[in-house]
Write a structure and sequence with these properties.
Blueprint: E1 23-25, E2 36-41, H1 51-64, E3 74-78, H2 81-93, E4 97-102, H3 107-115, E5 119-123, H4 136-152, E6 156-157, H5 164-181, E7 188-192, H6 197-209, E8 214-220, E9 258-262, H7 264-278, H8 284-298, E10 305-310
Parallel strand pairs: 2-10, 3-4, 3-6, 4-5, 7-8, 7-10, 8-9
Antiparallel strand pairs: 1-2
Helix pairs in contact: 1-2, 1-5, 2-3, 5-6, 7-8
Bound molecules: pyridoxal-5'-phosphate.
Pyridoxal-5'-phosphate (PLP) binds next to helix 2 and helix 6.
């Protein structure tokens, strides 16, 4: 009998296609540097982002413990990716889903969620904010609306900022996959933080495997609040995070070995290089993670193996000037 891999198996629904993404060595981008960067291609998930994983985990844990009842509405605040993941999971499982999103996020995201059957509620940005630059203040408005809608509809709130199940998607799957794929040989992990769910889940699993694996938080250069720096400009280009929020319960302080800062320009340059040199078409935050990993290879992690997540697809930014 032939040995079947997961890809050779017929799956019951698209939910079975979430996770088990490839891990790729970025050997072209690191030419001339000592050490390696390994990139987890999370944009190959069905919703084109890592957030499919947490959507599935949050919904399945809530089903299992009775917080989510058959046919109940699900509501969540999203920068688009979690909403897309939830749209997919809710479509397959038969839950109505309401995505609450800032108008500052790219339009592709709202269109995709609608196509997947979600109701999308778009919230105006603060007067001083710009499209494509969602600040913590903008997000606070979205949170207010999400809470109101969840209450009105007696909905289950798939709260990605607070539910431990959000991080568990990465703790149980993303990080163990990486350790298997890299044969356990990684020295450091750096991650651009939004909710902190990916950092929290992956760092916990890596430290459990080997406490010497260094785990770094990545932030926008002018909004590095977790690193204790003053926020000089909350309106950066890196969608999906860098909200200048200090209260991120999914991040446990003891998992953090350091902080790295990436400018908008560096993020865009590396995102474009990923496409041109590696053939990897990913979004702003993916380039941000790789830019931070390059900084590490040039400084404290010379000669080491650094792992990063490539969080979403470049297709989600076709309406922006990332691709001109
Ligand atoms: C494109 C992108 N990158 C990074 C992040 C941050 O990930 P996390 O919320 O796990 O910290 C998000 C979160 O929405 C995202 O959408």
């Amino acid at each position: 009998m032939m040995n079947k891999t997961r890809q050779d198996t017929l799956i019951e629904s698209v939910l079975g296609a979430i996770g088990n993404t490839p891990l790729v060595e970025l050997s072209r981008l690191t030419r001339g540097l000592e050490g390696r960067i390994l990139a987890k291609l999370e944009y190959l998930n069905p919703g084109f982002s890592k957030k499919d994983r947490i959507a599935l985990q949050m919904i399945e844990e809530a089903e299992a413990d009775g917080r989510l009842k058959p046919g109940q509405t699900v509501v969540e605040l999203t920068s688009g990716n979690t909403g897309t993941g939830l749209s997919i999971v809710c479509a397959v499982k038969g839950y109505p889903f309401v995505a609450v999103m800032s108008k500052g996020n790219s339009t592709e995201r709202a269109r995709m969620m609608k196509a997947l059957g979600a109701e999308v509620v778009l919230i105006d940005q603060l007067p001083e904010s710009k499209p494509g630059q969602v600040s913590g203040g903008d997000l606070a408005l979205v949170e207010e609306a999400a809470q109101r809608i969840a209450k009105e509809r007696e909905a289950f709130r798939a709260d990605q900022f607070h539910l431990e199940s959000s991080s568990r998607g990465h703790y149980l799957h993303t990080a163990p996959e990486i350790l298997r794929q890299a044969d356990g040989k990684i020295d450091a992990f750096c991650d651009f933080v939004g909710t902190g769910s990916s950092f929290g889940g992956c760092a916990a699993a890596f430290k459990e495997y080997d406490p010497n694996i260094l785990c770094y938080i990545v932030e926008p250069a002018e909004a590095s609040i977790l690193a204790g720096k003053p926020v000089t400009n909350p309106n950066h280009r890196i969608q999906g995070g860098g909200y200048s929020m200090t209260d991120l319960p999914l991040i446990k302080k003891e998992l953090i070995d350091g902080y790295l800062q990436v400018t908008d320009e560096e993020a865009m340059e590396v995102t474009r290089r990923l496409a041109k040199e590696e053939g990897i078409f990913a979004g702003f935050s993916s380039g941000t993670n790789v830019a931070a990993a390059i900084q590490l290879l040039k400084t404290t992690c010379k000669d080491k193996t650094i792992v990063v997540l490539l969080s979403d697809s470049g297709l989600k930014y076709l309406s922006t000037d990332l691709w001109l």
